[in-house]
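User: My instructor asked us to take a sequence, write out its structure as tokens, and then describe one feature of it. I'm not sure where to start. Here is the sequence I was given:
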Amino acid sequence: MTNASNPHEGSTLDGLLEADGTLAEAEAAAVKRVLAWQISQTMADAQLSKAEMARRMHTSRAALDRLLDPDNPSVTLLTLQKAAAALGKRLKVELVGAAS
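Assistant: Let's start with the prediction itself. The structure tokens for your sequence are:
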């Protein structure tokens, strides 16, 4: 997809990833990074240690480290729910229309 007004402008990154078949994986990785950052920031704001957070989640410190690792894409909705509850938050997941 090119722009007629600028012959040097190429396709979008989303278009490239979609053509490559890796768009869904890239989007999932981006969502995981944002969630890990939000949880980490909320913990810092509340001055909550990893040990205390793990205790509140009824999980191990290693499991919490995996959740907070932005490069580890493996996370379950249950783990996210436990993290949200431990921080006095709630998890909201929704399906939205596909981008055009």
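For the description part of your assignment, you could build on this observation: The chain has a mean pLDDT of 86. Try explaining in your own words what that tells you about the chain.
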